[in-house]
Design a protein that fits this description.
By secondary structure, the chain is mainly α. The protein folds into 4 domains: 211 residues, MFS general substrate transporter like domains (Growth Hormone, Chain: A, Up-down Bundle); 59 residues; 238 residues, MFS general substrate transporter like domains (Growth Hormone, Chain: A, Up-down Bundle), CATH 1.20.1250; 37 residues. It is 71% helix and 0% strand. It has 23 helices and no strands. Helix 4 runs antiparallel to helix 8, helix 6 packs antiparallel against helix 12 and helix 11 packs antiparallel against helix 16.
Length: 567
Amino acid sequence: MSTNAPTTPAPGSDDQAPVQMDKKVVYLIFGSLVAAMFLSSLDQSVVGTALPTIVGDLNAVSHEGWIVTSYLVAIAIVMPVYGKVGDLFGRRWPFLIAIAIFLCGSLGSALSTSFAELVIFRSLQGLGAGGLMILSQAIIADITSARDRGKYMGPMGAIFGVAAVLGPLLGGWFAQGPGWRWCFWLNVPVALTALIISFFALKLPMKHVKKKFDFLGTLFLALATTGIVLVTSWTSIVSGGKYDWSNPWLLGLLIGSIVSLILFIVVELKVEEPLIPLRLFKDSVFSVSVAVAFVVGMTMFAALAYLPTFLQMARDVDPTDSGLLMLPMTIGLMITAVGSGLMITKTGKYRIYPILGMAVTAVGIGWMTQITANMSMILFGAMIFVLGFGMGLVIQTIVIAVQNAVSPSEVGTATSTNNFLREIGAAVGTSVFGTVFTSKLTEKLTDIKSDFPSAGASVDDAAGLTPDKVGALKDVDPEAYNAIVDAYASAMAPSFWYLLPVAIIGFVLSLFLRDRTLSTTSGFEAQSQAEQTAAAKAAVSAVDGVDDPMSELDDDRDDEVGAGTPV
């Protein structure tokens, strides 16, 4: 790893002193970045298991989905914005601002006295969390070379998986123990520590550019993103399944999202500095990687959304224990995320890992079609271990591939595009899985209602079927209870067949991924070298008084410093 940054500040830097980053400083910064990534990922899932307690305390049972949806909408909207702003103006201050926003949102959420206040502050949390996710990964690209980045990206991928599983566990424990507000109080000391460390240790230069920010493109993408997330959330059983596809308002929202997306593409083709340059998709490594990211979002998050509830239904365990039973997935993900990162640093090759990862993921998804209500938890643990093992080979590897495929000046944009599509994939995958599962469960509950009148209102609405409702029948009518549990498991198992083709498509896509030589200079060094070279050429041209007809071509080549070379 290049541990020393250039000894001269980049042109336009606010820092006049030389920028030095030895290993200790890099590790210190990495620690704060990991903390930021952990917080932003954790808050996507920590509230889920505490929702019944939260809405009960705030008298908002009929609107509980908004606590989750507001956070997801905010994250998805701002991801591309943070990526672009970091590329244009530097990442230090946007990162500090993102932590501060997240911290304020956490404080406000913990102190909320009404449901409306909580939704507002959860949205504020999301506006900060989107920046933490994107800028953490982009800053790693600034201070490390692509060749050495695997040993840093691997742990970050593992942290992402740990947070996804640990969130429901902590949420359930907080709800049952110290109180749901600790879902948010937990963030305060960690975010504050990350803010202090980053303020003093993260010394990246600011940039001064005259390019106009793409406000119109941002508006259309925000509208499209909001529509997509709302549509998928409102049709998902996880969020209460408030609407079905026959609802005209839902269809109108979907059409509006599609129109906004088309307008976004039109704007991106015309503006000088697009929010997401569509030319990036012409690069095969970039386009394949972000397509795989979309598939990973569809498969991983759909499984994570429904498996904890399945455990609560089938095994009659509380939310905390269901989180503990999901730990094999985390262990599998950690092993391969860290291991593949170290191997990428050692060998300089990354292509094989997404291929193996998607193959193992497809096997894991296929195996999940065999789950039953009375299955051994050892067997269940083996299933989700395989699923996590496959995901760990993919999640952060494709981030390295994406970052290495573009010039250092577009690392933030590339990173945000990858994560943005993964989030959209997660929303779509969860909705599709939920729609299929709800349809199958509704059919089975109809039969149960006729056979077991004692089940009553518990089986009237598949989307409203909760572990508490089912658990209440256990002592009243054990036969009805067992019938509902069996119906739940037998409806979920075949639903995984609909995710299997998606995983297979991801595997096929990964076969088209190509290895490129990983850069041995950090993004900051590469940009500085390119800027110094451009400044030197401009000085020579000024002295000679002659315009160099090849200067524009040379500048374009300079912009690509740090991008990988096909192997």
